[in-house]
Structure formats: C-alpha cells, structure tokens
C-alpha cells in the first residue's frame, strides 16, 4: 500500500475505505436488516433510489471501516452538515456487528475523527445517541466526548419514549487523549 495512504487512512487493524456507488446495495441491506430500528432509518425501507440519495446527501465525508487482516466490513463512519465558518459538524458511526468490544471498529472511528480534525477547521464534532443505544456506547464516548445535552422523550420505540443524548468531541480534548488501549498509532497532538 502507498505509505501516504497507509499513514492517513490506516491503523494497525483498520482501513478507511470511501463509500462508493457499488456499496449502496450492501449498505441498504445492512441498514434495513442488520441495524434495523436502532439507527438512521429506524425500520423504514425506502426504495433503493431514495436510499442512494439519502446516503450521499449532505455528506462531507464517509468511509467504511474495513479489517486490514480479513477485509471484513466492521462499520460506517460519516460526517454530515459541516459548518466550516463556526467549526462544527455532525458525526455518525454504525458498527455492523454486535460482538462486544470491536477494536477494528474503534481504531477506524478514531482514525476518522483524527482525519476530520487534521484536515478541516472543525472545533467540535457532534454525535447524537438514542437513549436505547446509550448503554452500549456511553463508556466509550465519555472517554473522549462531552455529554452536552439531553432532549427528553425524543424517540418513540413501541410504547416507550427515549431521550436523545448529544455528545461533542472537542478538537483540543481529542488530541490530549491517548489511544494506547486500542493499540492505535494516532497522533497525540494537532
């Protein structure tokens, strides 16, 4: 692999691969069956053309997280709604399997955040987490993100309501966190 590409898009375990048109059918299957009601579509099954438009609309950048060892897809990371004047954007991440701690996914996510902070003038990246997913993500998020807001009873799932939690990854804090527990080679300074 090209040393520059390797340095920018790879960690020891993960490779960030841009999402391309050939990925649409696979991502549609993953979002409508695997991730189902817990992520972006929340159980909807739009026709493939509307899905394709939504997949790329308003996107600053998005990548598939791929295992360097096996080429298995581990997840999707995307940055949307960039506001380069005020220095913030939305960040979303979806893991394709639920196997507990996934170091490949974690390294890919960390590389993506570093890529965003190293190449664009973002001060904050905002993540929104539904209350029903918070238990799976809270401990990891709190290591590097600030819990900035809660919108009560935002999501309805069956007869229950769940809050929307808004986390922010701050550029300055990001580069002071050490990722040695994930075995990554991410930078420790801007």
Task: Summarize, please.
The chain has 190 residues and is α+β, with helices and mostly antiparallel strands.
Give a written overview of the molecule:
By secondary structure, the protein is of the alpha+beta class. Helices cover 33% and strands 33% of the residues.
Q: Globular, elongated, flat, extended or rod-shaped: what is the shape? A: globular
Count of individual domains? 1
State the CATH class: Alpha Beta
Mean pLDDT: 81
Question: In the CATH classification, which architecture applies?
Answer: 3-Layer(aba) Sandwich
Question: Quick one: CATH superfamily?
Answer: Gcn5-related N-acetyltransferase (GNAT)
Oligomer: single chain
Largest β-sheet summary: 7 strands, mixed
Helix-strand category: alpha+beta
Tell me the helix content: 25-40%
Please trace the helix and strand order, writing H or E for each element: HEHHEEEHEHEEH
What is the CATH fold-level name?
Aminopeptidase
Topology:
Blueprint: H1 3-9, E1 14-18, H2 24-34, H3 48-56, E2 59-67, E3 73-83, E4 88-95, H4 103-119, E5 124-130, H5 131-144, E6 146-157, E7 160-170, H6 171-174
Parallel strand pairs: 4-5
Antiparallel strand pairs: 1-2, 2-3, 3-4, 5-7, 6-7
Give short descriptive properties of this protein.
6 helices; globular; 33% helix; 33% strand; seven-stranded mixed beta sheet; disordered C terminus; Aminopeptidase; alpha+beta; 190 residues; 7 strands
């Amino acid at each position: 692999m090209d040393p520059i590409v390797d340095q920018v898009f790879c960690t020891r375990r993960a490779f960030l691969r841009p999402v391309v048109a050939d990925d649409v059918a696979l991502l549609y299957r993953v979002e409508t069956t695997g991730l189902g009601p817990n992520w972006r579509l929340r159980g909807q099954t739009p026709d493939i053309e509307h899905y394709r438009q939504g997949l790329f609309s308003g996107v600053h950048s998005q990548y598939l997280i791929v295992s360097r060892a096996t080429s298995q897809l581990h997840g999707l990371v995307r940055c949307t709604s960039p506001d380069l004047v005020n220095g913030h954007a939305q960040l979303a991440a979806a893991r394709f399997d639920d196997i507990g701690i996934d170091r490949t996914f974690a390294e890919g996510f960390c590389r993506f955040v570093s890529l965003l902070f190293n190449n664009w003038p973002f001060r904050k990246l905002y993540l929104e987490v539904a209350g029903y997913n918070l238990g799976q993500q809270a401990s990891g998020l709190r290591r590097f993100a600030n819990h900035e807001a809660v919108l009560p009873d935002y999501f309805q799932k069956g007869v229950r309501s769940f809050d929307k939690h808004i986390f922010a990854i701050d550029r300055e804090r990001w580069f002071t966190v050490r990722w040695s527990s994930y075995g990554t080679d991410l930078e420790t300074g801007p």
